[in-house]
Design goal:
365 residues; 12 strands; 14 helices; single chain; alpha/beta
């Protein structure tokens, strides 16, 4: 289980170039004109995690299976998308299916690459996209309000609870603020998610800078980072052009290239880490002679639900989880050493899985 991240932004900000780099494919056409991406391109990438290689070496695994992350390259948005302008309806439908939004923002100047608005202003670009999402949400919630109000008057408890959330969302949207800012209790989260609010999606701002600014960013990316911090979101600095050049190099040449341009790692790693942080995701592992495998779950997941990510039967028949912390597994050279040192724990149904746990589930069908 990974997560599905929709790459969005205005036309010509570098979405498709970034997509190509991230997925190491030329499936998405990167061209200098709006709507060069007509159908959303979907690409899966392995989540880089050096811990997995270390576990595989210790366990003498025949195969290494990383967890995967799905990127969806979505057609560029323009003003009026909420009313169907450009490819607006398709754009909004594609976003609705994503778990999070990677909002690519143009933070570079290049006379050869036209800007749909004729200027470079990342904050204005962000406002354009955010406004269209909020307008779409406003229309959707106003429609829901009418039907829910009727049901609530008929003493429908579920309708009353949902109506309360809709009212809170509408108050924010009418004030020009995204639905992600709606204050809600943990027990309301599921019902809130079911509303399908576009402006409630977690947002990761991807500042696409020029090559010279790839290491530390520039004044444009600084403004975006400040905005992200004020919203409780995340911002990542990346040069899509550099990433596209790295993507076509053999693995053994990529490190030298990165050092030459003053970078320590590919942008993919930064995007994934920020995305994980944004969505509260963690990784646990299974390791053995056959394979070492990484699995993604939400922070706070209990052992039976984590087992269910591997197979539904594991959750249904869960008995216990044989658990070794990653550091103990490495220090004690594997399961046998951890068991002998008393570091292999038997955890029950209430155990909350921790990042890096090496797990073996016992279950009964």
């Amino acid at each position: 289980m990974g997560f599905k991240c929709g790459i969005v932004g205005l036309p010509n900000v570098g979405k498709s170039t970034l997509f190509n780099a991230l997925t190491q494919t030329a499936a998405a056409q990167a061209a200098n004109f709006p709507f060069c991406t007509i159908e959303p391109n979907v690409g899966e990438v392995a989540v880089p995690d050096p811990r997995l290689d270390i576990l595989a070496e210790i366990a003498k695994s025949a195969q290494i299976v990383p967890t995967r992350l799905t990127f969806v390259d979505i057609a560029g948005l323009v003003k009026g998308a909420s009313k169907g302008e450009g490819l607006g309806n398709q754009f909004l439908a594609n976003i609705r299916e994503a778990d999070a939004i990677a909002h690519v923002v143009r933070c570079f100047e290049d006379g050869d690459v036209t800007h749909v608005e004729g200027r470079i202003d990342p904050l204005a670009d962000i406002e354009t996209v955010e406004t269209e999402l909020m307008l779409a949400d406003l229309e959707s919630m106003e429609r829901r309000f009418v039907s829910l109000e009727k049901k609530a008057k008929g003493n429908d408890k579920e309708a009353r609870e949902t109506l309360d959330l809709v009212v809170r969302a509408l108050a924010l949207l009418k004030d020009g603020r995204p639905a992600r800012l709606v204050e809600r209790k943990p027990e309301e989260e599921k019902a809130f998610t079911m509303l399908g609010l576009l402006s409630a999606k977690p947002v990761l701002y991807v500042c696409n800078v020029g090559e010279a600014s790839a290491d530390k960013g520039n004044a444009f990316s600084g403004k975006v980072s400040a905005l992200a911090e004020s919203q409780g979101s995340r911002a990542v600095i990346i040069s899509a052009k550099i990433e596209s050049e790295i993507a076509v190099l053999p693995p053994d040449e990529q490190t030298d290239y990165l050092e030459a341009v003053g970078l320590r790692e590919p942008g993919l790693n930064r995007v994934i880490r920020a995305g994980y942080e944004l969505l509260g995701l963690i990784t646990f592992f299974t390791a053995g002679p056959k394979e070492s495998k990484a699995w993604t779950i939400t922070r706070g997941t209990r052992a039976p639900a984590a087992a269910g990510v591997i197979h539904t039967d594991f959750e249904k028949g869960f008995i216990r989880a044989e658990t070794i912390a990653y550091d103990d597994y490495v220090a004690l050279k594997g399961e046998a050493g951890a068991r002998d040192a008393g570091k292999l724990r038997l955890e029950g149904k209430d155990y909350i899985v921790q990042d890096g746990d090496v797990l073996h589930f016992r279950f009964a069908v």
